[in-house]
Amino acid sequence: MLVGPALLNGAPFSSSLEAAQATNIPNLSVSVNEVIVPITVTDEKGKFVSDLKQADFKVFDENKEQKISYFNAEREQPVVVGFLLDMSNLNRLHWKTFAEATEELVLALLPQEGPKKFSGYLITYSTTAEVSVDTVNSPDKIQEKIRKLKPGGGAALFDALYLACTNRKLVRGEPIEPRRVIVIIGDGHDSASKKGMEEVLELAQRNLITIFGMSTVAFGFKAEGEKNLMRLAEDTGGRVVFPLEGLYKDVSGYLSTPSDEGNYALKVGTGGYAAELAKGMFNAVAAIQGEVTTQYIIRYVPDSTDDRKAFRKIRIEVPGIPGLKIRYRSGYYPANP
Question: Are residues 116 and 195 in the same domain?
């Protein structure tokens, strides 16, 4: 049932980083029929709930309760993170800010010190998409590349997702340990891809990828691509954060003061604007870092072997604790195409 891994580079455990090929990597034992579900749990205030036990969870596959065969609640579990950076014209206004935020996120998820549990890669997209930095376990090359980038052109978001699922070096053990995550830094619109939403979403689900988004849409505006970000995240168990969403929430009449920057009371270039922008970015980086590093992992073997259903829906519950928000992928494909 681990159908996704075989789609990436042709095999689940193909050639990988030298560091990942070291002899101290344990052999992983996973049933071919197991379904893997990363889960994030937050309370009513949005704080992560990290002290749940296996007995707290109930898992349903096509509305039938399943027996959990594996449970892991450890923090900082190994992850391969793909950073997909939108370089289209629409992101010119806040480009420097979001580039710096991406650097901070890379450093947060690929720390220079300590054990190398995390690996990452950078895919940039404008009119076309490319793997700008292939899989590494240090932040240096990715940060260096980001500093040299300049935005311009269209947005091939779906092609970037396709590349992430088909064209990069693998780390031994994916997608079980380490698991796979993608963070999209952009507004979600797509104007240049050859691939479509349904194709890349299915690829992501088959490859057991959880997608997160850091939206570049400014406060008071709506982007056509917002629904793309939301669907990609929700269907794979991730979420979208909006660092600019609350930029003016405490400013009375924030659109009533004429300004060349768009009628903002907090004008671009002022100390108040910079402070609010920095605060929003810091919170967004912290939120995504928390999501990626604070997940439960559940595995189960479905009691039904009927593979005729193309996509099987999953439901996760924590019935004993009211008010929790539980995020997980919406389902899985029981067979390779």
Answer: yes
Query: How many domains does one find in the chain?
Result: 2
Q: What is the domain extent for residue 91?
A: 79-252+279-293
Eight-class DSSP state of 56: G
Q: Which residues pair with 180 in a beta bridge?
A: 80, 209
Please name which of 324, 241, 290, 237 lies closest in space to residue 44, comparing C-alpha atoms.
Answer: 324
Question: Residue holding tokens 């439960």?
Answer: 296
Sequential pLDDT tens for the chain (337 residues): 454 444 564 333 333 344 443 333 344 444 457 899 999 999 999 999 999 999 999 999 999 999 999 999 988 889 999 999 999 998 887 888 899 999 999 999 998 776 678 999 999 999 999 999 999 999 999 999 999 999 999 999 999 999 999 999 999 999 989 999 999 999 999 999 999 999 999 999 999 999 999 998 865 556 778 999 999 999 999 999 998 876 555 554 444 444 444 434 444 444 556 677 778 888 899 999 999 999 999 999 998 766 666 899 999 999 999 999 999 999 999 876 5
- What is the reported pTM? 0.85
